Every structure is written in C-alpha cells, then in structure tokens.
C-alpha cells in the first residue's frame, strides 16, 4: 500500500460545481495532515491543515477520519482560479516534521 | 509564514558536472528540507538539513551525490554532484515555521544534457 494515495484524476468540472478529493494514508502514527495546492510550474503552497473535527475555510472544507485513515477536501462553487493540482500531505508521525506527499490530483475548472 | 528564495531558478548543465543550489530564508528557522520533484511526479524528500548537525538523508539518497551545507539558521545549499540526465528535476527547499505545515521555495529547475 502506498504511503499516501489520492484519486488519480484528472477532474474536469464546470464553474460553480462542487468537487471532492479523497486521500488515504498508511501510517497510523501520523499526526498532522495537510492539503497543498500546486499551480503549474510553481512550488506547492499550503492550502489548509486538516483536523479530526473538520475545518472549513470559505469554499473549502477538509475532513479527517483517523479510524479509516482517510482525508478529504471539498471545494464548493468552484472558480476558474481553483484549477491546480491538489496534494494530500501527511507527516511521518515523529517529531522530525517530515512530510510524505501524495501524487496529487489535477483539477481543471472550465468556464 | 516565511519568504524563501532559491538560486539559480533554472539551469542547464552537462553530465558529469555539479551544481550548487542555494536556499535563503528571511527568518531564522531550525528545520529545513530539500525535495526533488521529477517531471509529472510528486515531491520526494531528499534530506533534512538542521543547523548544527549533519544532514539526514532519506533512503535512496546519499551524501556523496547530494552534499548539503547548513551554515546558519537562514541559509542552506544542496549540491547535485556528477550529474546525469536522470537528475533532471525541480529541486525545492522548504522550512518549518510552526507545526502548521512547511513553506516552500520557488524551486530550481535543473536540466542535465
């Protein structure tokens, strides 16, 4: 089993659609979880952290299910500017802050 | 957050040569990381570079190939030695500011011919 596995994508959605990304991780000791966004030919940028209680930032909602080792990201009312690759990222579980990245899911929002 | 710069932003190098990539942060940070992102792939951690200690390399990466320096809390270098076309990749440094994730430099796009 891969350490961090994401929907392979790509996702092509119209503007205004709701889109959900799923991710599973294999390390039960992981404590910190993130979604990063990477635009073409740019560095990854932190989109949001993911907590067990779930967290929301505007149109973005992230959920974590520790029992299932499952992470999700929901984007509502998608915009053209949401087009990017979304990376599911999980820490190693120790105090060394090392991160493991999923392969990413490419989202294209169409007019 | 932190502002991170990398030099060079891109380079084209001949096989067998070496390239040193610089990473500069606008604040003092203890933990710094170097990643590689090969074409069409996600990020792979090369090593952890903490000031005051030897770099710690991940499986598949060795110091002779990727020597790292960390002379102070705002700066690090990664050297890609004896390059081959398989080393063509984007190399990124990142820093930990808080437990809330890492921040990345803009990357160095390396092409080896």
Write the layout of secondary structure elements.
The complex is a heterodimer of chains A (111) and B (113).
Chain A: E1 4-6, E2 11-14, E3 19-25, E4 33-38, E5 45-50, E6 55-57, E7 60-65, E8 70-75, E9 84-91, E10 99-101, E11 105-110
Chain B: E1 4-7, E2 10-13, E3 19-25, E4 31-37, E5 43-50, E6 56-57, E7 68-72, E8 75-80, E9 89-96, E10 102-104, E11 108-112
Parallel strand pairs in B: 2-11
Antiparallel strand pairs in B: 1-3, 3-8, 4-5, 4-9, 5-6, 7-8, 9-10, 9-11
Strand content of chain A: over 45%
Number of strands of chain A: 11
Q: What kind of sheet is the major sheet of chain A?
A: 6 strands, mixed
Q: Tell me about the biggest sheet of chain B?
A: 7 strands, mixed
Distance between the termini of chain A: 37 Å
Any low-confidence stretches of chain A, pLDDT <50, length ≥5?
A: none
Question: What attributes does this structure have?
Answer:
heterodimer, A: 111 residues, mainly beta, six-stranded mixed sheet, five-stranded antiparallel sheet, B: 113 residues, seven-stranded mixed sheet, four-stranded antiparallel sheet, 11 strands, 0% helix, globular
């Amino acid at each position: 089993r891969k350490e961090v596995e994401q929907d392979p994508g790509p996702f092509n959605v119209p503007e205004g659609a709701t889109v959900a990304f799923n991710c599973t991780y294999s390390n039960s000791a992981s404590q910190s979880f993130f979604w990063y966004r990477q635009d073409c030919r740019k560095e990854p940028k932190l989109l949001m952290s993911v907590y067990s209680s779930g967290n929301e930032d505007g149109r973005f909602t992230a959920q974590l299910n520790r029992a299932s080792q499952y992470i999700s990201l929901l984007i509502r009312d998608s915009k053209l500017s949401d087009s990017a690759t979304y990376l599911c990222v999980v820490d190693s579980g120790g105090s060394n802050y090392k991160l493991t990245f999923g392969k990413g899911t490419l989202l294209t929002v169409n007019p | 957050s932190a502002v991170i710069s990398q030099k060079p932003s891109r380079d084209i190098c001949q096989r067998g040569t070496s390239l040193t990539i610089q990473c500069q942060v606008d604040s003092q940070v203890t933990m710094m990381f170097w990643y590689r992102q090969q074409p069409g792939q996600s990020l792979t951690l090369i090593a952890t570079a903490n000031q005051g200690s030897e770099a710690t390399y991940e499986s598949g990466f060795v110091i002779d190939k990727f020597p790292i320096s960390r002379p102070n809390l705002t700066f690090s270098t990664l050297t890609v030695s004896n390059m081959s076309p398989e080393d063509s990749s984007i190399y990124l440094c990142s820093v930990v500011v808080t437990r809330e994730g890492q921040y990345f430099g803009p990357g160095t796009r390396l092409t080896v011919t």
